[in-house]
Write a structure and sequence with these properties.
Blueprint lengths: L20 H24 L6 H11 L11 E2 H7 L4 H13 L3 E5 L7 E5 L1 H21 L5 H23 L3
Helix pairs in contact: 1-5, 2-5
Length: 171
């Protein structure tokens, strides 16, 4: 009797849908994402940056180039984007601030709110993160054509939109 090697995928059932692309794609997306995060974690470890910290910095980097906008991002918005509670987010920001990667600044429109702003030291880490990300993408995407990559981006983008629609209640 053959022994099935353990995998991250569920055992095939007798039904034809068990091996269909619709069934496998969720597992593949999850596995690729998890494995890429692991690679990135390994690259960030020498910098003393944890996954949670680099994820916060990555989200904050999206708010950097907005012309005319106030610098940084409100801590409450950052917590919502990262799906984190107030207490864990506060601790995470405390550690990033203690390391000199971010600073809290008062929000000009809401005196109770604090905006999280990337410091020059944090920007240096973001620059290193971008370099690592580009290098990893080059390695991870090796052997794929530009057309393959464009198709994957289009498909994943549509999947993301579909999920966002469900989460937002836009059936």
């Amino acid at each position: 009797m053959a022994v099935r090697e353990p995998t991250d995928e569920p055992a095939a059932s007798s039904g034809p849908s068990a091996q269909s692309p619709q069934f496998r794609i969720g597992f593949l997306v999850h596995d690729v994402s998890r494995m890429r995060r692991t690679l990135f974690d390994q690259e960030m470890k020498p910098l003393g940056i944890t996954r949670s910290q680099w994820w916060v910095l990555a989200q904050l980097s999206r708010s950097l180039g907005t012309e005319g906008a106030e610098a940084g991002m409100p801590q409450t918005k950052l917590a919502r984007i990262l799906d984190m509670g107030k207490a864990p987010m506060t601790g995470l920001i405390d550690r990033l601030e203690a390391s000199g990667f971010v600073e809290r600044r008062p929000d000009s429109r809401d005196r109770r709110a604090k905006r999280i702003v990337v410091t020059a030291r944090g920007q240096g880490v973001l620059d290193q993160m971008a370099t690592v990300g580009h290098r990893l993408n080059h390695t991870v995407l090796d052997g794929l054509s530009d057309e393959d990559i464009a198709t994957a981006e289009r498909v994943l983008g549509r999947m993301k939109d579909n999920i966002r629609g469900i989460l937002d209640g836009d059936d």
